[in-house]
Amino acid sequence: MSEKIEDLSKADSIKAEIYSRPNYLNGKYKIGELIGLNDLENVKSDDIFFMETLRVKADSADKIIAEAEAQGKDTNNPDVMKELGKEINALGTPIHRSEAVMTAISATLHMIFYYGIAIGIWGLAFRKISLFIFIGVGVGFLISLLSVASVVAYSRTKQKIQDMMFGAGAIWGGIAMMIGIAGVIAFIIRLIFFK
What we know:
The protein is mostly helical. It has helices spanning 10-19, 22-25, 28-31, 48-70, 78-89, 97-126, 129-153, 158-193.
């Protein structure tokens, strides 16, 4: 009646492996309120990416619990385990692959918009707006593809995605703003000196 572990899908195998961990069996994941691990039975196992993320979280949880026990902390005490749970949850909330991909698409659209506008402003100075907007869209797409979207799409926690989006906005958004300001200056110079 029972399925062999070899017959399970990869996601089900990961779920079974987490179920068999001592800290799951003794209820420490549940007591510590570890997001994703405390209600593993409700997690759909059709998302391998999410299950792999939960396994990484379980690895981190086991390591932190073992370190606490080595320091003499009683992890059977619910108060101690809840404190450790806060520390473990601070490492990041696991996300599904679809959420990471949708955020990557959003990041790409933002870069396309920023650079389309910023480089498009240069089109005012050279009287070729549509060409410069087209170039800006291409530049924004390439920047996103090479440095933002590819990293965001494979991020496993909300915090990592938020950090990546903030960093991308600060760096690439700042550069787009400087390009746009320089374009405005070039346009003003053309209006004043090259009517």
